[in-house]
Specification:
Length: about 100
């Protein structure tokens, strides 16, 4: 019985609701002025590390953003330290090529 439970848990983890939001997050990042490559990389990392509630906070961001640093400055206004940390590390790793 326990052996059957492990594959099911792995499958549920791989298809978490926040991971299903990758496309939406990517589109939002592109609309914020980020390149498609950086948006894809950051969306993958952010949906792995943030909850749906935290991703919804990011959806509320409005305004003109033309660079990663502009986007990070906007995220800072969300007021969630974990969201900011994930965004900053994702931006740094993706823009330098250390993450894909």
């Amino acid at each position: 019985m326990r052996r059957a439970l492990l594959p099911m848990l792995l499958l549920l983890t791989a298809w978490s609701p926040s991971k299903l939001a990758t496309g939406t997050v990517k589109r939002a990042l592109i609309e914020s002025g980020l390149s498609e490559a950086n948006a894809q990389c950051m969306a993958n990392r952010m949906t792995d590390k943030l909850s749906l509630l935290q991703l919804r906070k990011l959806r509320a961001l409005r305004g003109e953003k033309q660079s990663i640093s502009d986007y990070v400055a906007a995220v800072r206004k969300v007021g969630d330290a974990h969201v900011l940390a994930v965004t900053v590390t994702s931006a740094a790793l993706c823009s330098t090529g250390f993450a894909h």
